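Next comes a single protein record:
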Amino acid sequence: MVILLPELYEDLLGEVAEEVELVFVAIGDLGEELGSLLAGAAVSARGAAVREDLTALRPGITGLLQQHGALVKGAGVIFVPGVLADAPRWIEWWWWRASSAPEALRVNLDPEVPDHYDYLSAEWYRIPVNSGVRHVTGPYVDYECTNEYAVTLSLPVTLDGSIVAVAGSDLVVSGLEERVLPRMCKMARPLALINAQGRVVLSSSPDWTPGMLHPSAGSMRSEIEVACACASPLPWVPVGF
């Protein structure tokens, strides 16, 4: 028998949720900085920003990584096509491994080549652009960057009422496990955290690993969605079995 246990959210995720909210604030600040940069470039002689202008964002990005380094492994901004004058599509994203300096993510953004990275279809980009609100994506395997299970926080960046980019940050599930699993293991029964789609985020049971679809996702979908919608900033609900 599986039981939804939303009352355990604060006990399990309270401190992590507070840090995640701070990360959302930080990427919001990054988005505001980008908006100011684009607005200034729009009235310049060039009339639009170019990739070189984005170096001004890097102190904020690396500062975010350093401040939340145990949890956050990547951060940056992803542009709506056509915003930059010298790049039809662009990702200004920085990430780091343990004991290394942040490095730029390098992916092929040319839609005409076979290894094209189509970020326009990614959930973490698509939902903030279409909905105008912030979003939490995952867990999923981040093949383009860390090769780890990750959760992406993202929010839209607007300029003059139009969405021009998405600001985001990657949290690694291993970092979440270090914070949350010890508390889960002290509970009287096996627990898991699941997202609104019924995917396991974390679990104290070896039978349920990150990314797996929880067996009750179908029959309890509406209850799971309601419980996750009430959770903030991480839209997950604890379940026991």
In short: The helical segments are 9-42, 58-67, 123-131, 173-185, 221-230. Residues 30 and 46 are 23 Å apart (CA to CA). The chain has two domains: 3-12+175-240, 15-172.
